[in-house]
Design a protein that fits this description.
With about 375 residues, the protein is an alpha+beta fold. It is about 35% helix and about 30% strand.
Length: about 375
């Protein structure tokens, strides 16, 4: 059973099949998508040109990859709806963002995944590509899948996605991009994030995901993919750090109040990774800015520890979501609210099922955009 308690700012894609629904969403945002493609085509910066070339190379490379068949069909449908080419659609997937931070925490009866969705590209504050509707829902015989969206990015890539028993949140990582043009089997990390979002909860096993990536090819960019899932009666969380040819899996602990934090910086407690951007080359505030974000989330985890040991009563789900949004957007706004912030997402998986809510970055703290409940 699934229902939406607060039905706002969520668009039900039209069509009887997933392919038809992707084409519908392409039409819905067609003008925005075409504008973004036009802007990209005019950019002559060396790195931007290389990204476009690698994106096209990746599209050619995955044509015979069985694991990518559903991705190819959905991207092609989205591109047809927007009246762009498949290669141009791949450009948009390779146009790396630098934003967001996520927090996974175990509480008394389950696991939470909190996420602030930020948009910041190549050391520039830009116009946010999050518009109404900010979330797309896809209906299939197997169930309902939802994802936060930008109006110029294929739904399900990056951002925040959810369905019954599975929630994913994506944080872009600062990784070196030298040599990407020479990669023979290039794979975009946005493809991987989409494929994980499409998995059933029991399929989203991190070691299997890493094996799948290694069998496909080599990533040319990097994400931290934060996952919360419920398999049987077990709720677990993990973050999967993907930095081109390297990966790191970190599982959430079993004790209430255990947590994992993620910013755009590869977790500084990890052993050095080959493809990590050197501290002096990190933009958008620099290395210390992102290091401070880790420290801030650690202090907030300690501050709210007494709440994390509690279990959630099903009758209080809506109020809990509203309280968390108010805490992030108002009580702790100095740490989490900035001009790059588009929305805050709150997801809970426990004995009550899966519940997800989103809130725009505005002053109306009493209203959330929606609360999706899956039992």
């Amino acid at each position: 059973m699934q229902y939406n308690e607060v039905m706002q700012n969520i668009y039900q894609a039209k069509g009887t099949t997933l392919i038809e629904q992707y084409r519908d969403v392409g039409r819905l945002f067609g003008k925005n998508i075409q504008e973004s493609v036009n802007k990209l085509s005019k950019k002559r910066a060396k790195l931007t040109v290389i990204r476009r070339q690698v994106a096209e190379k990746s599209w050619t490379y995955i044509q015979d990859k069985k694991e990518c068949s559903e991705f190819r069909e959905c991207l092609s449908a989205w591109a047809r709806g927007a009246e762009i080419t498949n290669e141009q659609a791949m450009w948009l997937l390779a146009d790396n963002l630098s934003g967001c931070q996520s927090f996974i925490a175990r509480y008394g009866s389950g696991v939470a995944l909190l996420h602030t969705e930020e948009e910041f590209i190549d050391n520039e504050h830009i116009e946010l590509h999050m518009s109404d509707p900010m979330t797309i829902a896809f209906e299939e015989p197997s169930g309902r899948s939802c994802t936060l969206v930008y109006n110029n990015l294929m739904p399900g890539c990056g951002l925040y996605g959810f369905k019954s028993g599975l929630i994913t949140a994506i944080d872009t990582l600062f990784v070196k991009e030298n040599g990407v043009a020479e990669v023979e089997r290039p794979v975009l990390v946005n493809m991987i994030s989409w494929m994980i979002w499409r998995m059933k909860p029991e399929e989203a096993e991190p070691n299997n995901i890493v094996e799948m990536i290694n069998s496909l090819g080599e990533l040319i960019d990097g994400y931290a993919i934060n996952v919360v899932r419920k398999v049987g009666e077990v709720c677990e969380g993990y973050k999967l750090t993907l930095a081109r040819s390297e990966s790191k899996i970190e599982m959430l602990g079993e004790t209430p109040s255990d947590y994992l934090a993620q910013t755009n910086l590869i977790d500084p407690k990890y052993p050095p990774m080959l493809w990590a951007t050197p501290p002096r080359q990190i933009w958008r505030g620099g290395y210390r800015y992102f290091l401070h974000r880790y420290k801030t989330m650690a202090s907030h985890a300690k501050m709210y520890q007494k709440y994390l040991i509690q279990s959630l009563n099903s009758r209080g789900i809506l109020q809990v979501h509203k309280t968390i949004h108010k805490t992030i957007l108002y009580d702790l706004k100095e740490a989490y609210v900035n001009k790059d912030l588009g929305a805050v997402c709150v997801g809970l998986i426990d004995k009550n099922g899966t519940s997800v809510s989103a809130k725009k970055n505005d002053e109306n703290f009493e209203e959330i955009e929606y609360l999706e409940l899956f039992n």
